[in-house]
Specification:
Number of domains: 4
Number of strands: 20
GO cellular component, one term: plasma membrane
Protein name: Permease
Strand content: 5-15%
Subcellular location: Cell membrane
Helix content: 55-70%
InterPro entries: ABC3_permease_C (IPR003838)
Structural class: alpha+beta
Largest sheet: 12 strands, mixed
Membrane topology: Multi-pass membrane protein
Distance between the termini: 31 Å
């Protein structure tokens, strides 16, 4: 009685199709379950990486900083931090010290200079650009002061009559903004030139001893700023960031206790600048996980339903053997274990392969972040749980069926009644209700989109809205197809035998046809929705930043640039334009140079040719000032500020760089007189060059850039856009997986009917039908099925994505509104794949006909 169980793995080879279906079903279920865990963890890692790039590189760990520290206390504070750091896993801190401005500094006999004496560890080791001399014992002086006042290397300055170590080198003053290594020292190490005073400078001591000796010799009572931080490797995962924060807190507590024991508890202040970034990263990981959990649960349930179907197929195929074993005393549990013994190995192999594939392909479908150490373990645990559920479900289905039939003696008609009930139950009404509930939750999503809320709260039910809409449409299409096929026996198209045969084959397999139609529609619709929303948010980030900034770089500058007294340097003149802003009379007026505006500006969704046409019209003459009207509404006036004549609109645009969608006008600089140009309160430089190139170029001609500087890369917080994109990329993955299921279902349906199709095809060929006509018949059958799925899925998915993209906009306060990207490439790709699948399925069907032996088929 043990032989069937021992021989079960070998007996499974008699039905390879069942093995393949069981393995693929668990593969896909475990793939999606594992991918959900990995997707969320990678999202957290990507969020940490993004946040790391937004803060200064020495802000990942603890920061000890305080102003006006007594000079006698500062060494004790530095010593305490350095002694306690190794115990908490930190290297030596980078210490920065700055004195107050020291007036009466004398160079070459002139006592009218003022300098800040400074020292920063490692600054002279490649982080200061030494133009001449060397970073020997002494001080480095900035080239701005040295060049303006003809101060040479070797000069010996004095401060209020007290000589200090000589100038051993000249360094190029740090630009504004400073290089990234100096980011945290921007306030102290960078000299602001807004006052246009070349006599200010920061003198860096080559070493700490030179700085200490000079401070002691000058009798400076306080260090204006004492700053200590750590250049740790940026964390790549949420767990790494959390561990770094915990160690940082411990170090701050240890330093505070150490200084407190000396009566210096308030000598320094410890802070955690990266703590908020870690909280945001954790929230991003949580948002993605919570958002995709319903989708992952749906996919796992679909996989379990597939295992249940495999169990029923196996039961039908092994029914005689099961009846015999039951009659000989085997119980339902033993018969269920027989199914596990026969199908367990392919199920386990498929599940393991799915988990491995989810890890290997993470780079293709997941966010660009590192995984936490435990993510792979939890993903494997989810896959193992799915496998256990699948095996238990397989054994349970067989046990229940054998118990009911062999022990309780129930007839199968009750099962058929239940199948009919399930077939006729209006599932589309249920899914439509869930979709409506999700839509109602989705409407509230954009309310959380506002400044100060980095990650709007996500309602998981709202994320299921697109899936249930597509599923509802698929179920409606399947029901209509079922009814049409039920009535297809009335069709009389024998004048077109290929079409008639295709209809009859479809009608004879209504159940698999409708099943493939539902799965195919759901797959393509989900794929289109996920890709549409994910790419829509990525494009929204680009277009919003383009309109907000107006170019790759925007820098406020002096009026001498706007009035033309100072021309732009040649190094950036080919990639830069000048714009001015006027306000008043209820309008925002942008003053542009039409000849150079397009070479620097980014237009976002605007049509470049139309903008060029309107810009060229600004140089025309008329009764008023030629202007492009922006954001026109009924209350908009034509009155312009600065004593200009009324605006004479030559055209209209819905939005414009910098202005956005506000009511306003765009006019040419040529419309303003020299006196009017001087009244423009704000001038900016727009450029396609980098911020460093622009600021250095302007500084080379003596132009001071104001503090308002912005680039497209840093203008907006991109993380909310990325979170939406990462979330819906999982929906796209779900659609791709369902697409694989749909293709396999179609090919399996063709293979299952191989004998039937082969016999019917061989007979019609003997009756005179040409092979080409038979092939056309199969292509009509399969093409109709896949064509319906493609058309319905693409139309439904694109429509749902078009409605949803604006709702998921995390920055509704910035124009333009998020919009659906061009769906043509996706539609063409899906269509091409559909054509290939139909061709493959048609070839399989015709191959079975060509290789068929009619006599054996009839005899069988």
């Amino acid at each position: 009685m043990t032989m069937p169980w021992r021989a079960a793995p070998k007996a499974a080879l008699t039905s390879p199709l069942t093995l393949i279906i069981a393995a693929v079903t668990t593969l896909l279920a475990c793939f999606l379950g594992t991918a959900a865990v990995l997707q969320a963890s990678a999202a957290g890692g990507a969020a940490v990486t993004y946040q790391s790039g937004m803060v200064c590189p020495d802000y990942y760990g603890p920061v000890f900083s305080k102003d006006n520290v007594p000079a006698a206390v500062a060494p004790q504070v530095v010593d305490s931090v350095r002694r306690n750091a190794p115990a908490h896993g930190f290297s030596a801190p980078v210490t920065s010290r700055y004195t107050p401005y020291l007036f009466g500094t004398e160079f070459n006999g002139d006592p009218n200079y003022k300098v800040v004496l400074a020292h920063r560890d490692q600054a002279t080791q490649g982080h200061l650009d030494v133009a001449s001399g060397s970073a020997g014992a002494g001080f480095l002086l900035g080239t701005v002061v040295a060049g303006a006042e003809n101060i040479k290397v070797g000069a010996t300055p004095s401060i209020k009559g007290t000589p200090i170590p000589p100038v051993t080198g000249l360094y190029r003053d740090l630009p504004d903004p400073a290089p990234r290594w100096w980011c945290s020292q921007q306030r102290n190490a960078v000299v602001s030139r807004l006052a246009n005073d070349p006599l200010d400078s920061v003198m860096f001591a080559h070493d700490g001893k030179t700085f200490d000796d000079t401070v002691r010799a000058l009798g400076i009572p306080t260090i204006k700023t004492l700053h200590m931080s750590f250049y740790e490797a940026p964390p790549k995962t949420v767990s790494e960031a959390e561990d770094l924060q915990e160690r940082s807190k411990a170090l701050i507590a240890a330093v505070k206790a150490d200084l407190g024991s000396r009566g210096l508890g308030d000598a320094i202040v410890g802070s955690l600048p990266f703590e908020r970034s870690v909280e945001i990263s954790k929230q991003a990981e949580s948002n993605v996980l919570i958002s995709i959990l319903p989708l992952a649960a749906i996919s796992i349930l679909v996989g379990c339903a597939g295992i249940g179907t495999v169990a029923l197929q196996w039961y039908q195929r092994r029914h005689p053997q099961l009846r015999l074993l039951s009659a000989r005393g085997s119980g339902p549990g033993a018969l269920g274990l027989l199914a596990v013994a026969e199908l367990g190995l392919p199920i386990v192999a498929g599940g393991a392969a799915g988990a491995v594939l989810a890890r290997l392909l993470l780079g293709l479908y997941g966010p660009p972040g590192e995984l936490d150490d435990g993510a792979t373990f939890w993903g494997s645990l989810v896959a193992a749980a799915i496998l256990l559920i699948s095996l238990a479900l397989l054994a349970g289905v067989i046990s229940v069926r054998t118990h009911r039939e062999f022990e309780l003696g129930r007839v199968r008609s009750g099962g058929r009644k239940k199948v009919k009930f399930l077939a006729f139950f209006p599932w589309e009404l249920l899914t439509a209700g869930v979709a409506l509930l999700g839509w109602n939750r989705l409407v509230d999503y954009s309310k959380g989109s506002r400044i100060g809320n980095p990650l709007p709260q996500v309602d998981p039910l709202a994320l299921t809205y697109p899936v249930f809409v597509v599923l509802t449409v698929g179920l409606v299409a399947a029901r209509l197809a079922w009814l049409a096929l039920h009535a297809s026996h009335r069709a009389r198209l024998w004048s077109r035998p290929a079409l008639q045969l295709a209809i009859r084959r479809l009608a004879s397999a209504r159940a698999p046809v409708t099943g493939v139609l539902v799965i195919g529609t759901l797959a393509i619709g989900t794929l289109a929705t996920g890709i549409g929303i994910a790419r829509g948010q990525e494009e929204a980030l680009q277009t919003k930043s383009a309109i907000f900034v107006g170019a790759e770089t925007r820098v406020d500058t002096e009026s001498v640039v706007g009035t033309g007294k100072v021309t732009l340097p040649a190094s950036v003149s080919g990639s830069t334009t000048i714009v001015g802003e006027l306000t008043g009379t209820g309008n925002v007026v942008l003053v542009v140079d039409p000849r150079t505006f397009r070479q620097a500006a980014t237009l976002g969704p605007l049509d470049g040719a139309e903008v060029d046409r309107l810009l060229s019209g600004l140089s025309g003459q008329g009764a008023g000032v030629p202007a492009i009207r922006i954001g026109h509404d009924a209350a908009q006036k034509t009155t312009l500020p600065a004593g200009l004549a009324d605006a004479e609109a030559i055209g209209e645009l819905p939005m414009f760089p910098i202005i956005g969608t506000k009511a306003g006008y765009v006019i040419s600089r040529e419309s303003l007189t020299e006196a009017q140009l001087r009244t423009v309160p704000k001038w900016s430089v727009l450029s396609s060059s980098s911020m460093t190139q622009v600021t250095e170029a302007l500084a080379s001609v003596g132009v001071v850039t104001a503090v308002n500087r912005v680039t497209r890369e840093s203008a907006l917080d991109a993380l909310p856009f990325y979170v939406v994109s990462w979330t819906f990329s999982f929906m796209a993955l779900l659609g791709a997986v369902l697409g694989v299921v749909a293709v396999l279902s179609l090919l399996v349906a063709v293979e299952v009917r191989r004998r039937q199709n082969a016999l019917a095809g061989a007979l019609v060929l003997r009756m005179g039908m040409r092979p080409r006509a038979l092939l056309a018949s199969h292509l009509m059958e399969l093409g109709t099925l896949s064509g319906l799925a493609v058309v319905i899925g693409v139309v439904c998915g694109v429509s749902v994505a078009g409605l949803s993209v604006p709702r998921f906009d995390p920055a509704t306060f910035l124009p333009p509104q998020s919009a659906l990207p061009d769906p043509t490439p996706l539609a063409l790709t899906v269509l091409a794949v559909g054509v290939l699948v139909v061709a493959l399925a048609g070839w399989i069907a015709m191959r079975s006909v060509r290789t068929a032996r009619t006599a054996e088929l009839i005899r069988a």
